[in-house]
Design a protein that fits this description.
five-stranded antiparallel sheet; alpha/beta; 780 residues; single chain
Length: 780
């Protein structure tokens, strides 16, 4: 891709991303930031960085400061056996990769980032072995190997023997008077005693050293020489064992070379990508739409570096820009210091950012095309070394653009045709624009030439645009406007900058009536545009209000229908509850009548109960119908089928079909229900939370489990009675009573009471993983 990074400040943007990297490797990777060639690479990069932005907003960040290069450790002969520093470098990199790789399950919602992190090889054995060998200061631990622990234990024992022997000598009256000091020290790594000069003959042993003043001799007593010798041998064994440990650990690490180097490469990439995410969040960047055709449609776009400079996104005035569809050339005019160059740089830099896979400071509905080339000629390029004037330098660069540009090129030229005679410069500029138009390139150029503004009004695929100027305050507004040329307002700007009023008046008289008329025309066009914009806004506002009211009306209608349906179901459920309550009452009365009365009263009561049951069946049918409007009945159910139980508003599995009764399993609980109450289980249908209302063998009060935790038996007994009665009426057979383990008193009383109830067929204790002795299973 042909670009001049300096002209568009791409280098400055890249330098900021480099500064945000934590590690040297991340900075090296960021240094390679450049536009991609393929659309697939761009979209993947945009998705990855966007996901990192969201992770950063959620507080999921990583510190890459410990990341270090390790490739030389595997290729240089200098590192045939690693030392502590090399091991620590490998350890730090591996620990970082292990920490990050453990987070891949937390990133399932972020596909691209999850893929990157999942590529990391999890190598816990390296970190575990390092911690086993070294302490924080780099000293080798006894845990490095059993042999090393044995050697050091033997050495410690020898030191104890030596010190004990020498302590005895210092306490011996035969040697005490010859001691210079009463302490044991070491010379040449051997334990010695400080003896007075001239007393050496009285202390049998080997003189290892003497003090600087020659007044003290350091003698290794004869009795500890063999022990010192053995200690030296042990130390040699220790060194050999440590060398062996380092050698083996080095070999183990080098065997994992590809995994370690691969992790380092991935971590460097992640460090770079996270810096891009931090930068993108700082400037409020979003993912634009990357399209194949070379176009620009920027919405609420801002210059990224200007955001950084001002420190706040809202401080930068946004702009909308379209280029490439209705017109291929934008001629941008307006006052000096009005923001023309900044806007053109913004468009170029945002394009380069998107083509580099970076989110941009613009709305998500912005479109950026796959430009194959981006050319820019911005700023004063006078070259003393090459003896080129500013004009000559511009001409040379534009000639190169004309040679290399095509229909997939974006060309940005600041002050086209400037730095020479205005009449000839504007003519040359128009000729250049005509040539670019024939090539088909997309152009944004800035100018003060009136002739080019006229060319923009008269030529197809060319449009004028301007940066606005406030004539009241005599200051630029930095607001971009498409469709109208702008005046330079040179005299007005000079006046606002404090130039002498007499010079301003003289300049106005010399500027001639033509320039004044052109300025007035621009003012008139701007006023007309404002009026049309106001009328358009009012029309759009009315349209939006009408659409909002229509949406509200539709919403209210849907809400009323839903409310009506809910009320109908509530009425049916309330009626069902009332009938069930009456059913329970009459059932209880019937039980009493059976023991006290006979004949006619019993017959009347049974008839009443029968009538209530019939009415309950009718209500049940209404509820089933209301809750199963979107489902079909199951006509040929067979064991293993998944069915919908409208009374419970949940699914169950058919276990057995017999005599128009289906034995079903609902979440581990089995019971019977009529076959005609089964409906098809439809995954796409709306699923509501499981409830306990609505079919012939179950009611809203019936439960499968009763909790008695913390109650006395007297408090629990009425609850047990109601629990059993409800279950009998609902047609439930397998129940659970949770009473807890505790002292066992409540469990014993509950089970004794259950055994005396005629509805209970048997009781049992569930497995330990289902409550054990703290739960009683009841079969009724």
């Amino acid at each position: 891709m042909n670009i001049r990074y300096g002209d568009l400040e791409y280098d400055a943007l890249r330098a900021h991303i480099i500064r945000l990297c934590h590690s040297g490797l991340g900075k090296e990777r960021a240094q390679e930031l450049a536009p991609f060639i393929g659309e697939k690479c761009i979209t993947k990069s945009l998705a990855l960085i966007s996901q990192i932005q969201e992770c950063l907003r959620r507080g999921l960040d990583f510190n890459f400061e410990d990341l270090c290069p390790v490739e030389k450790l595997f290729v240089s002969a200098e590192f045939s056996i690693f030392g502590f520093e090399e091991f620590r470098t490998i350890y730090q990199n591996t620990r970082l990769s292990n920490v990050i790789s453990r987070h891949h399950e937390d990133l399932d919602d972020f596909r691209e980032l999850h893929i990157q992190i999942k590529r990391l090889q999890y190598l816990p054995e390296i970190c575990a072995r390092f911690d086993q060998i070294f302490d924080a200061e780099g000293e080798v631990l006894d845990s490095a190997s059993p042999e090393l622990a044995r050697i050091r234990k033997r050495a410690q024992s020898l030191r104890g023997s030596i010190l004990k022997t020498m302590q005895n000598m210092m306490s011996d009256s035969r040697f005490e008077r010859f001691l210079q000091d009463k302490f044991v020290t070491q010379r040449e790594d051997r334990f010695v005693l400080p003896i007075k000069e001239g007393a050496a003959a009285n202390v049998p042993g080997i003189v290892q050293s003497h003090s600087g003043s020659k007044s003290t001799l350091f003698i290794e007593p004869e009795s500890v020489v063999p022990l010192n010798n053995e200690l030296q041998m042990i130390k040699q064994e220790e060194k050999r064992e440590i060398y062996r440990i380092f050698s083996v650990f080095t070999t183990e690490i080098k065997a994992l070379r590809e995994s370690i180097l691969g992790n380092v490469s991935i971590l460097a990439e992640l460090d770079f990508r996270y810096s891009c995410g931090r930068f993108s969040n700082t400037i409020g960047a979003r993912i634009p739409r990357i399209v194949h055709e070379p176009i620009l449609e920027l919405r609420t776009a801002r210059h990224p570096l200007l955001i950084l400079k001002l420190g706040n996104v809202r401080e930068v005035i946004p702009f909308d820009l379209s280029l490439g569809k209705d017109y291929r050339i934008v001629i941008l005019s307006g006052p000096n210091t009005g923001g023309k160059t900044v806007l053109m740089k913004s468009a170029g830099l945002i394009t380069l950012m998107a083509l580099s896979g970076l989110p941009v400071p613009a709305d998500e509905d912005s479109k950026i095309g796959m430009f194959e080339s981006v050319f820019a000629d911005i700023g004063d390029d006078q070259s003393i070394e090459n003896a080129l004037s500013t004009f000559s330098s511009h001409v040379e660069k534009i000639q190169r653009m004309l040679t290399e540009a095509d229909e997939n090129s974006l060309v940005l030229i600041d002050e086209i045709g400037a730095a020479t005679d205005p009449q000839q410069g504007s003519a040359l500029a128009q000729a250049i624009l005509e040539r670019f138009g024939s090539i088909g390139s997309r152009l944004i150029v800035t100018t003060h030439y009136t002739a080019l503004k006229i060319f923009g009004e008269q030529t197809n695929a060319v449009v004028n645009a301007s940066m606005q100027f406030d004539l009241k305050s005599l200051h630029p507004t930095f607001r971009f406007s498409i469709g109208f040329p702008g005046d330079s307002f040179a005299i007005e700007v000079a006046s606002s900058l404090g130039m002498e009023s007499s010079l301003i008046e003289r300049a106005k008289s010399l500027s001639g009536s033509q320039n004044t008329q052109f300025t007035e025309l621009l003012k008139k066009m701007q006023d007309e545009k404002k009026a049309r914009a106001r009328a358009t806004y009012e029309f759009e506002l009315k349209t939006r209000n009408l659409a909002t009211r229509l949406t509200e009306a539709e919403s209210k209608e849907a809400k009323l229908e839903e409310e009506l349906k809910a009320r109908r179901q509530k009425y049916i459920k309330d009626l069902q509850n009332e009938l069930i309550a009456q059913q329970k009452l009459y059932t209880k009365e019937l039980e009493e009548l059976k023991t006290l009365e006979r004949g006619e009263r019993k017959s009347v009561s049974e008839k009443k109960l029968h009538a209530i049951n019939e009415r309950l069946d009718e209500v049940r049918e209404e509820l089933v119908s209301a809750s199963s409007e979107k489902r079909k009945k199951v006509f040929q159910a067979k064991p293993g089928d998944r069915v919908w139980l409208p009374g419970f508003q949940t699914e169950a599995t058919v276990l057995e079909i017999r005599d128009n009764q289906a034995l079903v399993d609902m979440n581990g609980i089995s019971f019977k229900t009529p076959v005609d109450s089964l409906f098809e289980a439809n995954q796409a249908a709306e699923k509501e939370p499981a409830q306990s209302y609505g079919f012939v063998h179950a009611d809203v009060h019936a439960r499968f489990e009763l909790k008695l935790l913390g109650l006395t038996f007297d408090e629990a007994q009425p609850l047990i009675d109601e629990f059993i009665d409800d279950a009998v009426i609902a047609g439930l057979h397998n129940l659970r009573i949770v009473h807890g383990k505790g002292t066992g008193i409540l469990r014993s009383k509950v089970r004794d009471y259950l055994c005396r109830k005629k509805q209970v067929l048997g009781i049992d204790t569930p497995p330990m993983n289902q409550g054990g002795s703290g739960v009683t299973l009841v079969k009724i």
